[in-house]
Amino acid sequence: MIDLQALTVSLLVGTGFVIISYYIIINIYYLIVHVLALFELRDSTNESEWKPPFYPFGSPFYPGIAMVVPAYNEEASIVESVRSMLTLNYPDQEIVVVNDGSTDRTLEQLQKAFKLEAVAAPVPYDVPAKPIRGVYRSTRYEDLLVIDKENGGKSDALNAGVWLTEQKLFCAVDADTVIDRNALLQIVRPFLEDPEKAVASGGTIRVANDCTISDGEVTEVTLPKTGLAGLQVMEYLRAFYSGRLGLSRLKGLVLISGAFGIFRTDYVRAIGGYRHDTITEDLDLVVRLHKYLCDEEIEYTVDFIAEPVAWTEVPESFRVLGRQRRRWYRGMVETAVTNREMLFNRKYGRVGTVILPFFIAAEAFGPLIEGLGYILLPLAWYLGILSIEFFLAFFLLTTGFGVFLSWFGIASEVLSFNRYDDPRDILRLLWYGILENFGYRQWKTVVAWQGLLEYLRGENSWGVMERKGFGGGVDGGPDVDVDVDTDTNSAGSAPGEAGALASGAATAARVDTSGFIWVQNPIEREPAFGVIDGGVDGEGVGEGENEGEEDGESTDDGGFIWTSLPVTERTPADDTGFIWVSVPIAAVDEEDIQSDQVVRDDSNLEMTGDERLDDGGFIWTSLPITDTGLLSEEAPREAHEDRFRD
């Protein structure tokens, strides 16, 4: 008869040996990746300091990028989201909004704001998505395309956008993301350096909670006030500035965040686009690209660029964070199972033989084994198998190495781009690197086991992701509740998939006192400075059209005017500012420049002779300004008030 106690002791000893061996192997892997990340970060920082000797917007070498924006029931924020993406700095950009069978007025809001016109031509080829009901092009912004289709979920909507764009590259935009204005110019760098081999490129994701966001841009970076969000900041720094950079150095990057990454359109079409039956479409897409390109024996690169940044809101409660992390875990396991033929297969190079096996061992099995260790090692000590000295030494060693890796990521941030200016924020991050090992890290192992059980049960829903919006850090703006990441397995896309500024810019993100406003419609050449007495055909911005061109009259696409009134308070205001002149300044007579109908304060104009030979530019005016143009002294303010509020 087998001695039960002896068997238990043998099992505990064997399991303990496996756990300790796993710990040593995985942490050696982590150490190698983190060290390589330092070299990659050094190169990335040096390259970011180099300024091209040409003007990016005048370069013909930048490939076109389509921003694919799935939208489901986004009537409250879709217009502001699209406008925010239109302000990104890039010479050849297309916005593709996919209305994924919305049941609200999402499409109507787009039609009203951007003057959509149906494209008469039929869809030229089969699209792996639900039926497309209509395709529209904006008459105001020729680079804005809107696709109206039946509901099919996020992956389905992304496929519709990928198949109907003609751009070489595309960027799938998450709903809760704010993209830095110059991020596209930075993330496209691998496609400029090696346009034939570059297939995909990812950027850094940072936490936007409690940051100040104005006019769709993060203007002040601060650490979140809540500890849970702060812990995630430290996690993100470690993941991107150590993990992603190190894997990129090894030429084995297997994950590009769905919040911000660009891909070759033709290769994504070649693998059939996004799968409809996965809940982590970003990881699945990159792994399948690796597989396809190796099968076809195509030389390629998948890169990570540290400088371009997109900002996302992270959960601030354990309930919501646990739901998100369980979904991530299920998706990772599902991707590993689906692509299991790549594991240890020399056909797939270092990705199949080294990177993917270690990635799965560390990220999928790691939390499970660690969770077992938290139970078995104390039990072994209790049964007298393990001495208290060894147990404490092992715990301190694992904790110390975890702190080292966390501080490694924080040091990389401080020594490179350092977006946290306040030294107190850095001290808090260092403290979070210690704190996560006492409770938070153990909680994540429980979440991993829950995620595994959900996968085994066949659970494939996203769950409700509750967010407060980007209001908290913007001049005291109100918080907004926005629900995104809801179930997309059959019902449809997550509410909130509207684009880069869905929750932030639509609410408190646009709290500012002044700024440039774009005048879209044609502007008459006379009066010489374009927008006098209401500016655009007397009907307000964008309402009229010039019927023709006669002598002394011509049209232009429009330009910027400066307004000093609060964007959120639609009331006229008296102030001075810049106005864009869209006609050649040399064509203006000296008498016109000094005319009270054009500029009240001619002391600001010091243009004479050849200095005015230009195609247009900013001039200073002291006339009252509205969003439709200048108010002349003869025209009473009341005459413009109703139009301005509209």
Give structural notes.
- The chain is α+β, with helices and mostly antiparallel strands and 646 residues long.
- It has two domains: 422 residues, Alpha-Beta Complex (Spore Coat Polysaccharide Biosynthesis Protein SpsA, Chain A), CATH 3.90.550.10; 134 residues, no CATH class.
- It is built from 15 helices and 20 strands.
Q: What is the overall shape? A: globular
Mean of residue pLDDT values: 76
State the end-to-end CA separation. 89 Å
Task: Estimate nothing, just give the exact number of structural domains.
Answer: 2
Per the CATH scheme, the topology name of the largest domain is: Spore Coat Polysaccharide Biosynthesis Protein SpsA, Chain A
Stretches where pLDDT is under 50 for at least 5 consecutive residues are 471-514, 519-557, 564-575, 583-614, 625-646
Radius of gyration: 28 Å
Proportion of residues in β-strands: 15-25%
**Strand line-up across the major sheet:** 3-4-5-2-1-6-11-8-12-7
Total number of strands:
20
- Major β-sheet profile: 10 strands, mixed
**Annotated CATH architecture of the largest domain:** Alpha-Beta Complex
Going by helix content, strand content and strand pairing, the class is: alpha+beta
Number of helical segments?
15
Task: Give the CATH class of the largest domain.
Answer: Alpha Beta
Supply the CATH superfamily name of the largest domain: Spore Coat Polysaccharide Biosynthesis Protein SpsA, Chain A
Q: Work out the helicity level.
A: 25-40%
